Description:
alpha/beta, 2 domains, globular
Amino acid sequence: MRLAGALLGLVLAASVAAQGQVKLVINADLGETTISRHIYGHFGEDLGRNIYDGFWTKAGTGQWHLRDDVIEALKRIQIPNLRWPGGCFADYYHWRDGIGQQRPTMVNTIWGGVTEDNSFGTHEYMELIQRLGAEPFIVGNVGSGSVQEMSQWWEYLRAPQGSPLGDERARNGHAEPYNVRFWGVGNESWGCGGAMTAAEYANVYKRYAEFLRGGKPFRIATGPNGDDYAWTETLMREAGRMIDGIDLHNYTVARTWASKGRATEFTEEDWFSAVQKALRMDTLITRHSTIMDRYDPARRVWLIVGEWGMWHDPEPGSQPGFLYQQNALRDAVVAGLHLNIFNQHAERVRMANIAQTVNVLQSMILTQGEQMNLTPTSWVFDMYKVHQDATLLPLYIRSDRYSFGGDSVQAVSASASKDKAGPIHITLVNVDPNKPRTVEADIRGVKVSTVSGRVLTAATMQAHNTFEQPAAVQPVAFTRARLSGGMLRLESPPKSVVVLELR
């Protein structure tokens, strides 16, 4: 099989070099791996205007309530899970402050130094989850909390009535146990969650995980920061038998951490840098997976990319600690690249959470009072939702290169899947902002007779949606694809994301 793949790769490479085209071979009858819907997860940290003034608002009524339009927008993209309360905030958060009628105020010292009233807590989060039709993903406090505090939070959520914490939950308005499975044991424990070494955290993790009893929690350990492969090695060696998921974090910064640049004001050099750094996610996953495979050859442990996305400088005039940024076509292309990579690694990558959901970093939604604006990234998630819980189809791709400043990257990224009802879906990202690509795809193993699709692109790299022009960047019907004798031919526009459906 490997020899056949290598030979096919040589043939395709020669063809691409000769013709300057993108060649795909999709084996539509050979898929075995399911693309977990949880790869399309989201992140709702108590940070800036993500929770307060995002999900949880006083707009329109003057009283705190869940925001209906935000919920409906996320339901449209079939949000599978929502990670909460952090992020760094998780290791500052004490869950008892957010239950009951009398809730103390607190200062969010990690993000912006603002005083919050804790009106959004456990019950409000679980109501949000229920309305979204998603699964909860709660991150417990290791950094400033205790084993007892975390274990009691788990028990409060899961215990039946007749137990002390189950009865307390019932008095607070929810008689039946909550259905909670995903549980993070701390966040970024190498940094804001405790500044621990890998060996220190492995020991701390085992102690906390031991006391999460009853209900079979899916225990998620703090994973590495980017390319810290030693962290993964130590964690798998010392605690792997008690771990269900490892939470890798890695952001895409076009320039430098000290000067990231604006979301909507950038050059082609910045565009190329963002694409190049986004593609690095493939290397990170491959190398961390190789380490995990040595200790877990059955791939029981999920690799979770719990925080990813583009990180820009905050918008001028905004509170810097709130991390409010706009969202342009470049962000959408970077999102498409990541999701294709996650799909291709679906045997090990079983969950991911883009950072973040509303008004923070690479969000799906921006709000301003009662107004709501969908970002280009939101539309990518809308287009890619067809991959959720579908069967990953093996594909081979050979593409020419997009070059800039003496360096180059592969011009087109792709992934493909087949859903339970039969249709095949292909997602393509052309990262070249200047030139289209002619794509020829050999669809093998099945007969297809129709093709339809959508495309997301715009006239400029910097195009974005505003409250005044909310539809500047959104998908339209894609009509430049044709089927003939099992071959699919199309022209992928510059700087575009395309989704195709074949029947």
